[in-house]
Amino acid sequence: MPKDPSIKKVMVIGSGPIVIGQAAEFDYAGTQACLSLKEEGLEVVLINSNPATIMTDSNIADRVYIEPLTVEFAAEVIRREKPDGLLPTLGGQVGLNLAVELAESGILAKEGVKLLGTPLSAIKKAEDRELFKRLMQEIGEPVPESRIVYSPEEAVAFAREAGFPLIVRPAYTLGGTGGGVAFNEEELLEITGHGLKQSRIHQVLLEKSLLGMKEIEYEVMRDGNDQCIAVCNMENVDPVGIHTGDSIVVAPSQTLSDREYQRLRAASLKIIRALGVEGGCNVQFALDSESGRYYVIEVNPRVSRSSALASKATGYPIAKIAAKIAVGLCLDEIKNPVTGKTTACFEPVLDYVVVKMPRWPFDKFTEADRVLGTQMKATGEVMAIDRTLEGALMKGVRSLERGVIDLSLKGMDALSLQEIKDKISRATDERLFALAEALRRGVNLDEICNLSGIDRFFLEKMKNIVNMENRLKEEKLTGGLLKEAKRMGFPDAVIAKHAGCAEEEVRVLRGKFAIKPTYKIVDTCAAEFEAQTPYFYSTFEEENEAVLEDKPTVVVIGSGPIRIGQGIEFDYCCVHSAWAAKRSGFRTVVINNNPETVSTDFNIADRLYFEPLYIEDVMAVIENEKPLGVLVQFGGQTAVNLAGELERRGI
Fold this sequence. Notes:
By secondary structure, the chain is an alpha/beta fold. Among the domains are: 9-116, Rossmann fold; 145-208, Dna Ligase, domain 1; 214-348, 2-Layer Sandwich (D-amino Acid Aminotransferase, Chain A, domain 1); 518-648, Rossmann fold. A 7-stranded antiparallel sheet has the order 14-13-10-11-12-15-16, sandwiched between helices. Strands 17-18-21-20-19-22 form a 6-stranded mixed sheet, sandwiched between helices. Helix 7 packs across helix 8. It starts with 8 loop residues before the first strand and ends with a helix.
C-alpha cells in the first residue's frame, strides 16, 4: 500500500515535561517520528512544552509550537495550521490522552483532521479497562478475575467477594500512577480513592492478584495491511507485582520454553489485530510456568518506555517505522535502516543478551518509601549488552552511577541473615545486592527463590558471579582465570579487590595475556546480513568488528541515565556536539548507556558504543578508536567526573 496521498501535513503531539513514569523515551520516539515523516516529504507541525528536548529544536519539525499540551492550545494550533492528520501515539500517555480529548470534543471532525496510526476505538479499547476486558473475552484471551469500579464502596464490595491481595489499575494513567497492590481494606480504600482521582474517566480495575507469576512483554508492530511482527520479547527478572519500569528486564526472554514463547507471541499478534493498532504496541503477560497458564495484564496502544528499550536492544527503530505506517506505508515497503537490505517485515534476531536496570531517585530522596509496586518510581534506566547474562548484569550495575561497580552494596555485609532475607522478600532498589549477599552466605537457591519469586535461572547466573568472586580470592590469578572473570563482566578494580592486588597489576597482567575487549555490532539479524549502521557493544571474544578507521575522530561522552538533577538537557547537548563535530569534518563517536535517548540512536554519530560510563569501559573504547580527543562538557556531571581520570591517562 503506498503512502496516503491525502496526507500532506501531519501534526505530532509531544509528551511535555519529564515526570516519573514518562522520561526521554518519548523525546526519542517523537524526534524519530518527525524526522521519519519528513523523509516521506510531509510537512510536520509539532506541539510540545519541553524546552530541554531535541524534539523542540527548529530543525526537527517544520513548525514547532512550544505551548501547553491542553485541548485549548492544541485546538488553536490545529485551526491555524490545518493539518491533514494527527499522530498521537508517540507522545506517551500525555499525547494519547490529549488526542482522545480532541476527538471527543469534536475538534478533529470539525477541522477535518484524521487520527493517524491507532484509531480512537483501539485507544479506548486498550485504555478503558472495561472495554479492554470485554475485548479479551471476545477473542478468547485470558484476563485475571477482575471488576471495574467507579467508587471506593464498589471496590470494598468486590474485595469481600474475591479476597486479598488485589491489584488496582486506574484507566488512562501513566506509569501505573494511582495504582498499587492492596493487602487489606484500609489499603484498598486509600489506593482506589487515589486511582479514581488520577484516572481521566474516574475508573479503576480491581484485579485478583497474580503476584509471583513471571511477567513477560512483547513489543509488536502492525501495518494497515494487517501484517504483524514481534519486534522483541522481554522477561522481567522480578515477578508480577512490580511495574515493568521498576523491574530489571532481560531481552530476549531467558526462561521460556519454545512452546511458551510461541504461545505468547501468537497471543500478542492476535491482540494487536483485534485492537486494529497501526504502528507499535506493547503487550504484557503474566505466566505461570508450572501450570502453563497465562493472563493478559495490559496493552499500551502506543510507544512506551519498553518500546525505546526494544528499539535499542534490537536495533529496530520502532517509532521511525510506526510513523511511516501511520501515513499508509506497509512493513514490506519500508527498508530496515540498520541493514539497508532487509525490509521492516523481518523480525529481529538477537545473538547477545540485553539487561535493562532502572535508575531510582532514592539517593536524593533518602527518606522516601523504597518498596516497589505497580506504580513506577524510577526516573530513568540503563541498558547493557553482552554475550553472557552475567556480563550484561555487571555492566548494568556499573552503568547506574550509584558508586557501585559490582554486586556489593556498602553496608550489606554488616546486616544479619534475617535482615538480608527481609530485603529479598520485599522488593526495593537494594534487592539485587541482597540476593548476591544471601548467595555469598550460602543460602539455599530454593529458599531464595521462594522468598523473592525470582526464577531459579536468574539466581544461578548471580551464583556464577559470586562463585567467580570466591575463585579470585582463592586461586592464583592466571591468564585463564582472568579471561573468565573479564567475560563475566568483572572490572579490573573488582578483580584486584578479590585477588588482593593493585588494579594496575591486573591491567599489566591483561596486557601480558592480550586480554582486551572486542566490539560486536548490533545488526537486528544475528549477522545474517551485513549492517550499515555502526552500533557496538563490548565483549571478551576473539574477532573485533569495530575496525579502526583512518580519519580524525572525536569522542562525545554521554550523560547516562536520567535522574533527579540530570535530565535530557545533557542528551540534547551531546546530540548537538556530535552533529557539530560531524559538520566540522570529524568522525564522531558517542559513548552512552541510556536506551531512552536520542544520543543512542544509531544514526546520530558515525559510531555508537553502548557501554557503561565507567573509566575502564570508556578507556577501552578510546584505545579502540584512537581519537584526537574527548568532549566531556556536554554530558553533564557524569562526563565531567571522568575528565580528571582521562587526563591522568593522557587523553
